[in-house]
Amino acid sequence: WWCAxxxxxxxxxxxPKHYPKADFYFLADVDTLVFRxxxxxxxxxLHHEVLGPSEDVYMGHGYDLSxxxxxxxxxxxxxxxLRGRTLRKLGxxxxxxxxxxxx
Length: 103
What we know:
- By secondary structure, the protein is an alpha+beta fold.
- 41% of the residues lie in helices and 16% in strands.
- It contains four helices and five strands, in the order H-E-H-E-E-E-E-H-H.
- The strands form two sheets. It has a three-stranded antiparallel β-sheet with strand order 1-5-2. Strands 3-4 form a two-stranded antiparallel ribbon.
- Helix 1 packs antiparallel against helix 4.
- The protein is globular and about 35 Å long.
- The N and C termini lie close together (11 Å).
């Protein structure tokens, strides 16, 4: 199960290579309904009024199956919003690769 939940990380690692200047990356399952205007308004607010230039953002749902709080499983069915600099930093530091290879 853990391995199946990591398959999307390969694609996630590729996003900054194909879209290196994106302010945000959004991931959602195929059956997720996205209100584009609301998402755009949220990203604009975060980018222009809330976040400083060096702040990271991950918005989604992290879940620890043992019940001990937030864990290393990320459930993305409802959508995940990552700041561009956050994803680029995760790639540059090797954290994404580590998550893919963690057994």
